[in-house]
Structures are given as structure tokens and as C-alpha cells.
Design a protein that fits this description.
This is Acetyltransferase (GNAT) domain-containing protein. InterPro entries: Acyl_CoA_acyltransferase (IPR016181), GNAT_dom (IPR000182). GO terms for molecular function: acyltransferase activity, transferring groups other than amino-acyl groups. Keywords: Transferase. This protein is globular. The chain has one domain: 3-Layer(aba) Sandwich (Aminopeptidase). Strand 1 and strand 2 form a beta hairpin. It contains two helices and seven strands. Strands 1, 2, 3, 4, 5, 6 and 7 form a seven-stranded mixed sheet that branches.
Amino acid sequence: MEGDDSKSTKHIGAFMGSRCVGILSLFLSRTNKLKSHSQYQLRGMAVEPQFHGQDIGRKLVLFSECELKKMNVEMLWCNAREIAVGFYKKLNFEIISDQFHIPEVGPHVLMYKRLS
């Protein structure tokens, strides 16, 4: 993804032994939907299908939140796929946009969580 190699970008993985079973990336990026200047965007989150339902995604997000709090980041936001909205709501993210369509990916909403 664009920005993958930026010094401010964080890539986080979940491992079972030496096998990576889940990933997400955190990008220093702002949305004009939030007033805070201190924002990171969560992107590229995925968990291997055979590991779904094992709390890996939740643990990746919670670990990410802890890392961002150490950096005094105030807001974490994402473009959540329609099918993932419930997942993010359980982690206390809130919807702040109408539904929109990302070509070749599908319907999304913008969601955020205040970290501080």
C-alpha cells in the first residue's frame, strides 16, 4: 500500500509459532471527519480464514491501540467493510459517515475510536 515504507507506518502481525496468521497496518493519516490532529488510520487488516473466531483480530486491534497510546495518538480510524462493522463496534468504534463504495472491495463506512 502507499505509505507502507514510511517511518511513521506500523505493521503488526499475529503469529502462531513462526507462521503469520493475522496482520494490520497503521498509517499516519487524517480524516477531515475528526477534529483531532493526532490520528492514525488502521488499514489492511486480515486474519487467515482457518483462524477466524479465535480473537486474533481483536487482539491485533487492542495491541495497536496500546502502541498508539504510547505515542500519544488521540484517534484511530478505519474504512470498515460493511461485514466488519459489528467487529469494530464490539471494540467501541463508532460510525461517522454514510456508507460509501470502494471499487472492487465493496461497501464501507468510516469508523473511529478515541484513544485518549
